[in-house]
Prior knowledge:
The complex is a heterodimer of chains A (283) and B (255). Chain A has a domain at 82-273: MetI-like (MetI-like fold, Orthogonal Bundle), CATH 1.10.3720.10. Chain A has twelve helices and no strands. Chain A has helices spanning 4-10, 14-19, 28-56, 66-78, 81-113, 115-130, 137-144, 148-172, 176-184, 189-226, 232-241, 245-273. The radius of gyration of chain A is 24 Å and the shape is globular. Chain B is globular. Chain A binds chain B through residues 175, 177-178, 180-187, 191, 195-196, 199-200, 202, 275-278, and chain B through 58-60, 77-80, 82, 84, 86, 88, 90, 92-95, 103-104, 106-108, 135-137, 155.
Amino acid sequence: MEQDTPTTLLAPSAPGTAAGDEAVRPGFATRWRAWRRPLTTLVILLVGWELLGRFVLTNPLFFAPLSEVVAAGIDLWRNGDLETHIWVSLSELLEGVAAAIVFGIAAGVGVGVSQRTREYVEVYITALYATPLVAVTPLLILWLGIGVFSKAAVVFLTAVFPILINTASGVRATDVQLIEVAQSFCATRRQIIAKVMLPAAVPFMLTGIRLGIGRGIVGVVVGELFGARAGLGYLIFTSGQTFDVPALFVGIITLAAMGVGLTLAAELVEHRALRWRRSVSMD
Amino acid sequence: MERHPASVTVEHLDMEFVARGRRQKVLDDIDLQIAPGEFFVIVGPSGCGKTTLLRILQGLAHPTSGHASVGGRIITGPGTDRGFVFQNDALYPWRTVTRNVVFGLELQGVSKKEAASRAQAMIELVGLKGFESHYPHELSGGMRQRVNLARALAIEPAILLMDEPFAALDALTRESMQRELLRIASVAGTTVVFITHQIDEAILLGDRVAVFSPRPGRLKEIINIELQRPRDPDVKQSAAFQDYVGRVAHLIGHA
């Protein structure tokens, strides 16, 4: 696309315009500059892909140029298939992650607060965290069928442990003095957990959730490879079996976009929730 | 909820810790009588058990033998009749100034409206009007200590326990905080037990100054400070003040 023209026009004037009345918010030119370089990389990659598909890997059984992938994407969108696949995968992911957040935080607080609980379960939680739980997917599909529910269960299993473990270490990392302050104000155990330990653990929880989303996306794809009627993983799997390379790429790209979108959303929430923290690396 | 300043009594109090399998005595046979409304300062070198004594008064630690009481009631645990000002401000970083000050009232289940109005009064008393919605990391060390003080005062304690609250501040901020504390204490009208290792701070603030000796902490002597109130840090220049400094330094030096 012809994106070069506005860049060269705007860039030289950038330092001057931002200095005036709008000093707090970076001006359009400054923000545009932050995007320019990664976008350049993207354009080069996309053009390279197109050329590679047209002149080097020309066998349609193994590769497809970008233009054909885009065309396949438009087709899949027009006939409604893509929307269905996105919707199925997204609901599997969101249901699983939501359940993982609720259970992970509750159990994480329990494990973090109670030494006794920790002694009973900590070793096993660590072991399960290290186990690639997508391996139990066939079992879950046997139990729960090939619908959305079995995949949500896979997502839950893969996402719950980072959330649980991070929450527990966040609770345990609570500054002792902050607990003593609450004690000196006669706080009950419940109040200490709710008003001191939980908020202190929030940054850890958010990190856990972000990790959980990442693992959950893997869970969705793997789950759908093992048995599904729809979903992006299903689209990738069936396209591969029918040598429909353009559709296969549509599945991969949509999945990547979904992952990026959710990670950005999580970062936005994190940024909002942690306004009280002095930022470490921001200028 | 109107509270009157309470008295403090400490009788035959001993405190031992077991560290690495060895018993260590930190407080040895302490007897104290603090009158209602008095500004009582404990001064001593580090390791004399003064913070331990304060924690016992707050109910965060329990003596090995003997007992301490507040307003005639023996201390068994923390109570809302006592407000504790911690050495490093120990504010909740995720709470704004107002929400930090309101914390103790929130735990007691005081209605939001009343808590907010009491907190506002305390914030104004410590001179932080205009900073209500700031987070602790946006405040200077002196301002954080003011919030810490306001938080302790908001529950309207009969006794204010202060554990070297200005130790981490620079000299100038410390001086202005001392001036502020003199003003605030006279307005709030609570009994104050204040701990410090700085001799001039002890004499400037205290009605009486108790000098402790280190390991095990023993009460060496209590000195009446008969400097006129209201006091101002300028009093440090006076001969009478320097005289007190000499006496306390002598006592500590011969510990």
